[in-house]
Every structure is written in structure tokens, then in C-alpha cells.
Design goal:
This protein is mainly alpha-helical and 145 residues long. The protein has one domain. 77% of the residues lie in helices and 0% in strands. Helix 3 crosses helix 7 and helix 6 packs across helix 9. The chain starts with a helix and ends with a helix.
């Protein structure tokens, strides 16, 4: 294993430890579970409400955008992130349909740009996004009306 691969593996392990921090774990539980915005307006409302859920959304998506930025800046290999961070793709799938409208409404044209480039910038990423979208559709169908 090369020195670069070892350093990247160490960074992935540090990132994993950050995901286990108690507040981050609670935030990930919310964003990975009940957080299912049905529109850009709902996403804007959650983020701007100033409560715990808005903070959770910003914390989790800020974390994953940072991880994606590490890829774009050469600190992490895209394949390593693909192989170890499936949650990033799932979380992105939850906001992807509303991202353009959210950016416009909030006047944040670059919000989550690193995640978008990582996920949608490769055929493999787009396939995983399609899989995650199918999972979300199935989750939404099981929710009580």
C-alpha cells in the first residue's frame, strides 16, 4: 500500500469517527430517517426555521459536502469515498430534486456543489443515485398518508 493510500485510509477513519460523535449521530439519524422533504419550499422551511432539525440538515450536508470537497481537491480518492461512504449518496438523493430551486430561493448558488459534482460527475455515481432514488420512493410509499 502506498503512503498516499495509507494517509487516505487514515482520513477516512477520522471522518468515520466524526460521524460517531453524539450530536452528529443524532443529526444523521434525523436526516437519514424522517427527513424527507417533498419540495424545495419544504427544504427551505426546514433550514430557515432555526430549530434543531434545520441545524441537523446543515450539519449533515455540510459534513458530506466537505468530504466531497476533499475528493475534488485530491485529499481523498473518489473510488475510496464511493466504496466507504454510501450514506453520502443516499443523503444527496433526498435533496437532489430540489437543489436548483433551493439554491435560487436561498441565493446560495454553490450550496452542495461538491456533493453534486462527486455524485453526478461519474456514471457510477449516477447509477448509485438512481438506486438511492428507488429506495427513497419505496420508503415514501410505506409512510402513512
Amino acid at each position: 500500500m502506498s503512503e498516499l493510500a495509507i494517509r487516505q485510509a487514515e482520513l477516512i477513519l477520522k471522518l468515520y469517527d466524526l460521524r460517531r460523535e453524539p450530536v452528529m449521530r443524532e443529526a444523521r439519524s434525523y436526516v437519514g430517517g424522517e427527513f424527507l422533504p417533498a419540495s424545495a419550499d419544504e427544504l427551505v422551511s426546514i433550514v430557515t426555521a432555526g430549530g434543531k432539525h434545520g441545524s441537523f440538515v446543515l450539519q449533515v450536508y455540510g459534513y458530506w459536502d466537505m468530504v466531497a470537497a476533499f475528493v475534488h481537491n485530491g485529499a481523498l480518492d473518489a473510488k475510496l469515498v464511493y466504496d466507504t461512504c454510501a450514506e453520502l449518496y443516499f443523503q444527496y438523493a433526498k435533496i437532489q430534486p430540489y437543489l436548483a430551486e433551493f439554491r435560487q430561493s436561498m441565493n446560495l448558488p454553490e450550496w452542495m456543489m461538491s456533493i453534486e459534482r462527486l455524485v453526478e460527475g461519474s456514471e457510477q455515481g449516477r447509477r448509485r443515485l438512481a438506486t438511492m432514488n428507488a429506495s427513497l420512493t419505496a420508503m415514501a410509499a410505506r409512510l402513512p398518508s
